[in-house]
Design a protein that fits this description.
62 residues, 3 helices, mainly alpha
Length: 62
């Protein structure tokens, strides 16, 4: 009996969260959040130069 009630409550919670995630009201916010990793990557400095690399990783100049 208790397990059936728990299963039903979990299922209703799942349906509620799914409905909330797919509403039009949240779509713009989720679209903006999905672009965050890309914008953070663009804001970083370009690739490091040879001088910024540790000595063990630099190519020899000979």
């Amino acid at each position: 009996m208790i397990s059936g009630i728990f299963t039903s409550a979990a299922f209703i919670g799942f349906i509620g969260i799914t409905w909330w995630a797919y509403t039009r009201h949240n779509r713009a916010r989720f679209e903006e959040a999905s672009m965050l990793p890309l914008t953070e990557e663009m804001q970083r400095s370009p690739l490091p130069t040879v001088m910024e690399l540790p000595a063990c990783c630099r190519e020899s100049q000979s």
